Amino acid sequence: QLQLVASGGGLVQPGGPLRLSCAAPSGTLDYYAIGWFRQAPGKEREQISCINNLGGITNYADSVTGRFTISRDGAKTTVYLQMNSLKPEDTGVYYCAARQRYCFEGLANFYSWGLGTQVTVSS
Q1: Measuring CA to CA, how many Å separate 43 from each of 39, 40, 91, 92, 110?
Q2: What end-to-end distance do the CA atoms of the chain give, in Å?
Q3: 53, 22, 58, 112: CA torsion to nearest 10
Q4: Cα 58 off chain centre by
Q5: Which residues contact 14 (CB under 8 A, 6 or more apart)?
């Protein structure tokens, strides 16, 4: 089963940038759509972005549109989430997850989950 590792979290000031990475140590991500999710304290996990297996189709939650960018590297081993203009409400644990080829809405449509990485936006 595909195993994913999310990394790159940390403490950042409001307005600052941060880049998260999602990698598969045991293989490549060629055949998988990758979604990014976050779980804020006391709230349910939400889907915030997704990229299909070929990288040509991306989608974003309204709350991050225009500030976050999802992308894949050329070697197809890593998916990134570039987060700009961060706000305190972006604070939470960020997870990546995989499903075959195409993006779908909803956590239940993703079947390989990595451990999360904490993002804290605070001055």
Answers
A1: 6, 5, 11, 9, 19
A2: 40
A3: 60
A4: 12
A5: 86, 87, 88, 121, 122, 123
3-state secondary structure of 107: helix
- Of the candidates 19, 9, 4, 3, the one whose C-alpha atom is nearest the C-alpha of residue 94 is 9
| Residues 3-22: tens digit of each pLDDT | 899 999 999 999 999 999 99
Q: Please tell me the distance from the alpha carbon of residue 88 to that of residue 35, in angstroms, as a whole number.
A: 22
Strand residues in the chain grouped as ranges (E): 5-7, 10-12, 18-23, 32-39, 46-51, 58-60, 68-72, 78-83, 92-100, 112-113, 117-121
What is the three-class DSSP state of 108? helix
Reported as a single tens digit per residue, the pLDDT across 22-46 is: 998 888 888 999 999 999 999 999 9
**Which residue is it, tokens 């075959």?**
100
